[in-house]
């Protein structure tokens, strides 16, 4: 029996994913849930899993940080990332962080099925577009790399949410940070990208189409 852990903070989303996997995957399959990074670590420490399905937006914890920690603790535990963020923003970062695959939450059920079956069989699920992004990241000369490559995972999350129209308070709640910390993150991002305002920052993010 395959054992799967779903790490997602929204109960309705967890329920939907569970029902999909129960319908799509060969039986028998046992699925457990975790609503936070801390809960996920507790469950993984207490029980072996064949796959973790991980959301990147978690309360109190950066999902990419959790992914890297899971990979350090158990490199053989496959983690399939299922995120609201477009793959051109985060797929390369997730795959470099140890993910066995990356899917956007807008993906079709058939793609989730294909990804889950591939990862559960010991493989890695990489779409053709993600393969292109990985290839570009490998061949790009460091001195010619775009400025957004300097951003940390947290800073990339901030810009993605800002470009999606979120307010400072909404971003702070989403990332479980204080408004003051978000302001500090914003200042660092503007400095790294050599920009002066939110408008310039959003324009840069939209027009540059960051690969990660």
TrEMBL record:
Keyword Transcription attached: yes
Family matches, as InterPro entries: CheY-like_superfamily, NreC/VraR/RcsB-like_REC, Sig_transdc_resp-reg_C-effctor, Sig_transdc_resp-reg_receiver, Tscrpt_reg_LuxR_C, WalR-like
Pfam family, one: GerE
GO biological process terms, semicolon-separated: phosphorelay signal transduction system; regulation of DNA-templated transcription
KW Cell division (keyword) present: no
SMART domains listed in its UniProt record: HTH_LUXR, REC
Domain Response regulatory intervals: 3-120
Name recorded for this polypeptide: DNA-binding response regulator
Organism: Geomonas limicola
The organism's taxonomic lineage, starting at the top: Bacteria, Pseudomonadati, Thermodesulfobacteriota, Desulfuromonadia, Geobacterales
């Amino acid at each position: 029996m395959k054992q799967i852990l779903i790490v997602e903070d929204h109960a309705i989303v967890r329920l939907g994913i569970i029902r999909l996997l129960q319908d799509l995957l060969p039986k028998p399959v046992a699925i457990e849930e975790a609503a936070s990074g801390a809960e996920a670590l507790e469950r993984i420490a207490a029980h072996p899993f064949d796959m973790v399905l991980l959301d990147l937006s978690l309360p109190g914890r950066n999902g990419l940080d959790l992914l890297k920690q899971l990979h350090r603790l158990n490199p053989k535990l496959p983690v399939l990332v299922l995120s609201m963020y477009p793959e051109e923003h985060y797929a390369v970062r997730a795959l470099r962080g140890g993910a066995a695959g990356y899917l956007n939450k807008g993906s079709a059920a058939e793609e989730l099925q294909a990804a889950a079956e591939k990862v559960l069989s010991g493989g890695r699920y990489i779409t053709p577009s993600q393969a292109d992004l990985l290839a570009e990241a490998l061949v790009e000369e460091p001195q010619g790399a775009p400025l957004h490559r300097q951003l940390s995972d947290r800073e990339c999350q901030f810009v993605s949410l800002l470009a999606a129209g979120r307010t400072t308070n909404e971003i702070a709640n989403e990332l479980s940070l204080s408004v003051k910390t978000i302001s500090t993150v914003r200042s660092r991002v503007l400095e790294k990208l050599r920009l002066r305002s939110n408008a310039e920052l959003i324009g840069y993010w939209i027009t540059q189409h960051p690969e990660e």
